[in-house]
Amino acid sequence: MVRHALTAVFAAAALAGSAVAQKCTRNQKCPKDAPCCGLYGDCGVGAFCLGGCDPTMSTTFDSCVPNPVCKSGTYKFEGLNDVQSINDYLGDNSKINWQSQGNPIKYPSGGVALTMAEGTVGTLLASTFYVWYGKICATMSTSQGQGVVTAFIMMSDVKDEIDFEFIGNDINNAQTNWYSQGVTNYQNMEKLKVNPDTVSKTHEYCIDWSEDELSWSVDGNKGRTVKRTDSWNATAGRFDFPQTPSRVMLSLWPAGLPSNGKGTIEWAGGEIDWDSKYMTNGMYAALVTEVTVDCYDPPAGIKAVGSKSYKYTDEMPTNNTVEITNELVVLHSLMDTGDEPGSASSSSSSSASTAPKPTKSVNMVPGGNPGGGARQDSAVAATNTAQPTSGSSPDGLAPGGGSAGGSSGGSGGGSTGGSDGSNNQWDQGNGGTGASTGTGTGNAGSVLEPGLGKVGGSAMAIVFAIFGLLVL
Ligand SMILES: *[C@@H]1O[C@H](CO)[C@@H](O)[C@H](O)[C@H]1NC(C)=O
Ligand SMILES: *[C@@H]1O[C@H](CO)[C@@H](O)[C@H](O)[C@H]1NC(C)=O
Question: Which GO MF terms does the UniProt record name (predicted)?
């Protein structure tokens, strides 16, 4: 019910609003009033400038905040204290290690359930720190059912990517893959067997990523290794090997939505069944009980003028154009950007003084496909760049439910609502209905109208009230 109500609101907002999110590419960078090119290839402020912001497609390199450095640790998601919604996170990674979109739920016996109710685009957890080489392991069990994809991936802001993907109708295999700077090469995919299956119990999946070698293992057995030296691309003049600081991402997402590309739906095993025996309380779910991160020392030769963040310094985003600096930027509000982070000392009711002055609607929270990754063709397709894209390739993936290019006023990648009570316990009797809200109708998360912008801080409250962006 909540979902239907929200959908109506979105539709109304889309009519009234004009927030067509501008797309960004290397050749067409974001405009000054929405300087940050977010994870899904469109421009905005606020969360667009944090994790996933591509400096090579943003107004300036400083529009995106620098990437906080790797943090070794064991992350158990107990109580979700370490998880904050992308709608609230402003970049202070000293307090929060994980950012969420969608509906992560505390699992009664430990860990976090990534959920996906009908009409939502699932759930994404992304680390607020970046790993620049390291061993990253996730202990998890996947969801099941055609069209449902569970993923554990590493992805950089310039779309280097290392994947474990789990297709819901092939529960005996994990698919491994990698991409370099978002170039979609599906020849790289290789399956690893999982015994007895990915669903009935948790397994430990590890990605071991160094400067020269990348490997994937399941329950301690190394199943696949790729060497950097085998990945030379003469056309591009670089190694097609993941080499830039990357976030850890865990997600559950609806690859089998009818609005996605045909190839994507086929890859995912068919269209999603929203009345499936694999759903519990109206939701699909995957369980993550632990993530461990062992950061490797920065490779010799990296320019280090500090120790707190990784920062891109060149249009060609390869390993040797990233440096380690002491710059850390925390935004004052979601109206702010890396260039204009706002002042932490100004009144909490308004950030208007330093915020960019929007001349049109500005998006503050990127939405769309929690799968992230190279599988996002709406951003690419809408931009007509040299990026290879094909609607029928297995990649051809639109952000969940948001395949219409330029749709405006869409809900976030998993805007969710639901009452507190029903969200806390996944296994609770009636939890399902309360927790299912949100839709995925576009790339734009929350949308700020110019009129609202003038009232400063309170506009945020209005926007969030309208979109019901309450997670956790
Ligand atoms: C080499 O790089 C170019 C430019 O990025 C890309 O179009 C091409 O697909 C790459 N080749 C392979 C085999 O991936
Ligand atoms: C960057 O990659 C090159 C190969 O392209 C390699 O020779 C060099 O050691 C790497 N440098 C760093 C700092 O990772």
Answer: endochitinase activity; glycosyltransferase activity
Integer Rg of the chain from CA: 20
The answer to whether the CB of 211 is under 6 A from ligand 2 is yes
CB 402 within 8 A of CB 443: yes
Share of the chain above pLDDT 70, in %: 69
Quick one: DSSP state of residue 155? E
Any atom of ligand 2 within 6 Å of the Cβ of 320: yes
**Is the dihedral angle over the CA atoms 307, 310, 313, 317 positive or is it negative?**
positive
Type of residue numbered 215:
S
Ligand 1 is surrounded, with C-beta below 6 A, by: 183, 185, 233, 235-236, 240, 388
**Under a CB-based contact definition with an 8 Å cutoff, are residues 112 and 290 in contact?**
no
Ligand 1 atom 10: the closest Cα is on which residue?
233
Going by their DSSP bridges, the two strands 67-68 and 309-312 should be labelled as antiparallel
What is the DSSP-derived secondary structure letter of residue 120? S
Q: Is the dihedral of CA 34, 37, 43, 44 positive or negative?
A: negative
pLDDT value of position 161: 96
Pocket of ligand 2, candidates 156, 209, 243: which has the most ligand atoms within 8 Å of its Cβ, to mutate? Answer: 243
- Burial group, residue 190, by CB count within 10 angstroms (0-12, 13-18, 19+): middle
Amino acid 5: pLDDT: 31
**3-class secondary structure, 235:** coil
Tally the residues of the chain.
472
Q: What is the pLDDT of residue 361?
A: 67
250-272 pLDDT, tens digit each: 999 999 999 999 999 999 999 99
Specify the DSSP element, H or E, that contains 362: strand 362-363
Residue 442 has pLDDT above 70, yes or no: no
